[in-house]
Amino acid sequence: MELLQAMINGILIGGVYALIGVGLTLVFGVMDIVNFAQAEFMMLGMYIAFFLFQVAGIDPILSSLIVFGVVFLIGALVQKGLIQRVMNAPMVSQIFLTVGLTMVLVSTTQLLFGATFRSVTTSYQMLALHFGHLQFSVPYLIAFGVSITIYFLLWLFLERTDLGRSMRATAQNRSAAILVGINDKKMYVLALGLGTGLAASAGAVILPYAYVFPTVGHQYALIMFTTVVLGGFGSVPGALLGGIIVGIIQSVSSVYLPTQLQNLVVFIAFIITLVYKPAGLLGR
């Protein structure tokens, strides 16, 4: 029963991990760039949701839509002002730029808000639903439900809209997409805006059961990259599968190992995937 409870918790957590990872895989799939600052945009979303709660009393789950819009615009500006300039540069330049962006975001946040751990208090924070011997945390259920809904809306956008198809075409063959009239620069701006906005939304929905502080992104970075590597870089369905797997690994390992070793197991899974299936489970 304890193992089943851990697996259920892992699936609920994994749904949020999928939303965190899908933004990273979307950016890589369209732009062929690994955004090492992705987790810091999640941190930015958590801070925006926190202050919306403190100032306006907006629940983080509801404010996730506002957070998405704000960080979408920030991501679009970052793409146009910074990343666009290194699109054709060597990969090392792209890496240094996004790593440098990580440092800027963390340092600026520490300067403005200090290193204090902050959290919100909601009416459902300590609630749980009981089914026999199983327990379902209400904040985890809500975060899972919102994450899967956003993921499904993203899938509909990519599969059912002309703009989404244009993004997929750019990801599959940039040169061919340009030849048929698709504006690749517009697709890059949209991709980074969506990618960072999705990560920020994930940050907002986990705020009812997580703390926000300037370096919170560091503890999610490994999870984010493992999720994407497991599922396959550039694969949106792979991000969902990878997120669920990472959530289950992390939750089940906590049953048999000390809490401090949870991320060690995740890291081992990361290495094994890179060695034996570097394209990921659904990657090509």
| Major beta sheet, strand line-up | 1-2
User: What count of structural domains?
Assistant: 1
Name the poorly predicted regions. none
How many beta-strand elements? 2
Helix % is over 70%
The number of helical elements comes to 11
| Average predicted confidence as pLDDT | 88
Largest beta-sheet characterization: 2 strands, antiparallel
Structural class: mainly alpha
Question: Which key terms come to mind for this protein?
Answer:
284 residues; mainly alpha; two-stranded antiparallel ribbon; 11 helices; globular
Summarize the structure.
The chain has 284 residues and is mainly α. The protein has helices at residues 2-31, 38-56, 60-81, 91-113, 138-160, 162-172, 174-179, 184-206, 216-231, 236-256, 262-276, and strands at residues 128-131, 134-137. Helix 2 packs across helix 3 (60-81).
Describe the structure.
With 284 residues, the protein is mostly helical. The protein has one domain (2-125, 132-215). The protein is built from 11 helices and 2 strands; from the N terminus they run ααααββααααααα. The chain has helices at 2-31, 38-56, 60-81, 91-113, 138-160, 162-172, 174-179, 184-206, 216-231, 236-256, 262-276; strands at 128-131, 134-137. It has a two-stranded antiparallel sheet with strand order 1-2. The longest helix is centred in the first third of the chain and has 30 residues, at 2-31. The protein is globular and about 60 Å long. 46% of the residues are buried.
